[in-house]
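REQUEST FORM: STRUCTURE PREDICTION
Request ID: SP-0412
Submitted by: Lab K.M.
Chain count: 1
Length (residues): 266
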Amino acid sequence: METEQNNNAPGRKRTFMVLGIVIFVFILYYSIMNIMGPARKLTKINEEFDVKQDQKTAIDEGIYSDSAYLALLKEKAWLQSKTLMAETDSIYLTINLEDSTANIEISGVVVHKSKISRISASKIIKKGNKNAVFTMLSTPLTIASSFATLKKEPVMIKMAPKDTSEYKPDIIPDTSITEPVNYILNLTDGIRIYVYQEEHTKAGDMMNQLLFDIKERLRDTWRELKSIILLKVPEYHPFIKLRLPRDDAKIIYRAIPKNGQIAVYI
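STATUS: Completed
RESULT:
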């Protein structure tokens, strides 16, 4: 009996070593593929939106990195994007990261203004090629889908009374007043806008946000794994994360159309 156990020990050891090597190689492969994602996204943005100088015109390339030129380009992109949205006669969202405001507008008129308490953004947006980023933002960003802790259009189903004698006033409490407000706007060009409520007045607020983030990370991990198994580089999503008062965040989410448009000033 002892002889059989001694003979099996080296086999188990080899099995664990092979398994460990396989796991290590997969983790290394997974990490490399994820590192390639942001680089590929940056290359794609530069190829699509960066300035392409005409060989017939001799323009000093230094102008494209001049601070005055970039300031004008940023302002032009902002105004151009807002003008295109104002012409649609639809509700849209403007996010100004410089003065920390998020506004709901209709035809160029601000109908709701909110102050952003905290902002963070990916390096591609904050420190990437300014010419490419500003050019990308010169057209409105369109919402492709969203992921949220609250309903876009709350619905209450009621049975109509047969006559006035059967009528009873609503006694259902309005849970939307205290419900957590956290959501992600997935835009058609791959950018994501995360909006979180700034208040943590209830014990469950922080836990709700944590669970919300975990769910989104699990969804991303599953997509990445499917891409990596198919030998594809996972898509990287540049992001902008905002913290707003709960009421303002809720108003914005429910006011903008399902496939609404957004302008961003960075």
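NOTES: The domain at 2-52+70-265 is CATH 2.40.440.10 (L,D-transpeptidase catalytic domain-like).
Reviewed by: T.R.
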